[in-house]
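Intended use. Records like the one below are meant for learning the mapping from a protein sequence to its folded structure. Do not use them to infer anything beyond what is encoded.
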Amino acid sequence: MTKQIRALARGLAVVNAIDSANGPVSLGELHHTTGIDRATILRILATLEQEGWVYRGMGDKRYRLTYRLHDLGEHVSVHDAVAQVAAPILEQLQEELGWPSDIAIYDGQGMAIIETSRRRTAIVLNREVIGYRPSMLKSAMGRAYLGFCDERRLDSILARLRQQGGEEGRLAGDMAYIRRLRERVQRLGYAQRDPSLFPLPSASEEEFDAIAVPVVVMGDVQACLSLVWVKSAHADEEGVEARFAARLSESATALASTFEAHQLY
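Structure written out for the chain above:
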């Protein structure tokens, strides 16, 4: 009988555990599933990550398979692949501008944040945002998507919001409001957060602001990229917003090229 390579068997056990999970997994969950000690799993994960087979999310610190394994495992999520390729751009934005960024996709029910650089910031913003669904009509993310999506998608989203009722349902039925919103977003090239929007919980009492831009691939909005900052940190509010928007747009263009290269659309 041919002797087995124990290290390889353990590595494959970790890959199989990630593949069979319902979503991204933690170190503790992998330990529980595989029975392998945590130190060994960490070494395996470090090797898999270095070789490009496993990706650890910045926002939730959980592990998922990369887009390189699309053909090997049906549980590889396109959303996880998007988060992976976006992570270096989010990190670069945070290093350059000092403020965190999020990336969100529209999943048929609304916008959903899939990656963030908030954990890398000194200012304590709400850092548990993975999976959070920002408002379609009042958040910068939602407005950026609505501002640049096609008319067919817009009609579908507005119809769903009207069915849900509430404040957003009422606004979704106000076509003059929707028209003004889209015109403003398209004119600026980015969306601004509605000041009346109730912010996410935060350890800081500072007032935050946010803008977002679309990531457009082959004419369709594939994701939205946002930047969040403390308003009191910048005296020239309009000037800093324009500067941030220009840099965010550059990042969205770079991200669109990456999406197209990896066929993430």
